[in-house]
Amino acid sequence: MGNFVVSARKYRPNRFDEVVGQNHVSQTLKNALQNDHLAHAFLFCGPRGVGKTTCARILAKVLNCQNLGEDHEACNACSSCTSFNENASFNITELDAASNNSVEHIRALIEQVRFQPQQGKYKVFIIDEVHMLSQQAFNAFLKTLEEPPPYAIFILATTEKHKIIPTILSRCQIFDFRRIQVQQTVEHLQGICAKEEIKASKDALHIIAQKADGALRDALSIFDRMVSFSGKEITYNDVIEHLNVLDYDYFFKFVDALLEENLPEILNIFDDVLKKGFDPDIFINGLAEHLRNLLVCKDEKSLSLLEVSDGLKERYHTQAKLSPSSFILTALNLSNECDVNFKMARNKRLHVEMALIKMTYINRAVKLAKSGAAPTTIGAPVPNVSKQKKTPDAASPSIVKEDPIAFNKATPDPEGKEEDKPKLVISASFKSKPLPKISKMNLSLSAIDKLVNDKVNQEANKEKVELSMELLQPIWDAYIDTVTSPSVRNTLKAAVLEINQTRILVKVGNTISKSRVQQESDLMEFIRKELETPRLAMEIEIDETLKPIEIEKPKVKKFLLPKEKYEKMHEINPLIEEFRKRFGLKPDQEEMT
């Protein structure tokens, strides 16, 4: 196996100035030592792998160093520092609260507090993952933590500060550790590469730092894996292959295809990503991150927020100039919506593809919104009409215009064969109104919408004129005849009908009657079908002055006695009397029933 030591242990800081990304903590502790304002209890909290336990050990070593320098750093040469480096110091006690979280463990620690240090000034107790202590252990620790002996120093470390009870927090001086920035991690890895004589590209180190998510220990673990995988030369391609990270080139090509509205290329890129084994949600999250970086690059002042190498910054900046802000923001919104609903989608691939198709036509939708045109579904890319010559169309007397959707699906005919192009023939009912001037290759969708709206209004006016009570009442009565429920029949009969433009106003006497009419879902469909008015609507109002109609009483079936049944049968067939006498039967006998 050899004597290999992982980088996280081999290059663990021994001095405050070697700690990466925590200058605010290091400088505060140095100033406290210099001014002799050192607290008796500290709480180091923050994410994993950012240096909490490392700073606690450095502080413990500094407190007992016999040759403390002017910069308040340990000398690493005296007997106290030597014993600490060899894990043989009796003045420093470390307790892992994750596995020693009971009252008995805290009592054992308190028992050690009673004894003064054998060498040095202080006895330091480091409790890691202190949030794992039980409630009883916290209570047992309170008094000692509040009033310890003058030689006792407690350093608590945790990743979950919110789980620590307030009585413990109030007795400690709290230091919040920050996530380590990507650039700081890259610089630290470059220093290790120089010491280990490893050649690593800056882009590769950036990927490692981003994958670590602010934890230097994780970055060093990934770095060791890459050294084992690649040897003495770490390349960008090796890193993205080994860490299963999508290449930046995919997203750059993808955004270029979005800007060109090249839907086949977009779907092919997404398919290539899936074939490489990446999940669809990983791709959509990576695309959202790429769009965020493009948005950051829109302004020189925010360019520093981009945590990538200088070469990639230039590529981002170049693509950001070609991408409108409206496009980036809309695409970000679609990416976020796709990610939120991804888990609920049954067909994951189709769910993401639908979002990508929407992104493809963002620029066209924005142009339509700015021009005031109504939104429409567009299924294929169109030629770049901004580069074509815009000449007025010579409209013929028959008022024939090209279909804009057909132009979206076809390219201009190089031979000028107009008869092969699809036509949209406008009916003569629109000839009374002049058409707007429309470009030959860019027919205004807003003009088409206006024509359609005019047609709808004309038909609505037609319905308004033709609708009358003479037509409505027989249809209403015909529907009542189809109703089987007596209560609903009585309610519909008692309702008062009025016509309000293209609406039917139904007045009923109470809330129950209104509910009954609303539940008749087939009523309006029946009326619309009979009147041939598909846009007819109905309103229901309550008018308490209406008198209830006389309720139809259902016919009650009368039960006959045996003698009465016989008499009824005798009226129908007198010969039954002869039958009764022949067999000696009587009308009140049980058999007669």
Notable traits:
single chain, about 600 residues, alpha/beta, Rossmann fold, Helicase, Ruva Protein, domain 3, Zinc Finger, Delta Prime, domain 3, 6 domains, five-stranded parallel sheet, three-stranded mixed sheet, 12 strands, about 10% strand
Question: Would you spell out the secondary-structure blueprint of this structure?
Answer:
Elements: H1 7-10, H2 23-35, E1 41-45, H3 52-63, H4 79-85, E2 92-96, H5 103-113, E3 123-128, H6 135-146, E4 152-158, H7 166-169, E5 173-176, H8 182-196, E6 199-200, H9 202-212, H10 216-230, E7 233-234, H11 236-242, H12 248-260, H13 263-275, H14 280-296, H15 310-322, H16 325-340, H17 348-360, H18 362-371, E8 400-402, H19 404-409, E9 423-425, H20 445-466, H21 469-482, H22 486-494, E10 496-500, E11 503-508, H23 511-519, H24 522-531, E12 537-542, H25 562-572, H26 576-583
Parallel strand pairs: 1-4, 1-5, 2-3, 3-4, 6-7, 11-12
Antiparallel strand pairs: 8-9, 10-11
Textual characterization of the structure:
The protein has 593 residues and is of the alpha/beta class. It has six domains: 7-176, P-loop containing nucleotide triphosphate hydrolases (Rossmann fold, 3-Layer(aba) Sandwich), CATH 3.40.50.300; 182-242, Helicase, Ruva Protein, domain 3 (Orthogonal Bundle); 248-371, Zinc Finger, Delta Prime, domain 3 (Up-down Bundle); 398-463, no CATH class; 467-542, GMP Synthetase, Chain A, domain 3 (2-Layer Sandwich), CATH 3.30.300.180; 562-592, no CATH class. Helices cover 50% and strands 9% of the residues. Helix 5 links the parallel strand 2 and strand 3 (123-128). Helix 13 packs antiparallel against helix 17, helix 14 runs antiparallel to helix 16 and helix 21 packs across helix 24. The longest helix has 22 residues, at 445-466. The chain starts with 6 loop residues before the first helix and ends in a 10-residue tail after the last helix. Mean pLDDT is 78; it is low at 374-449.
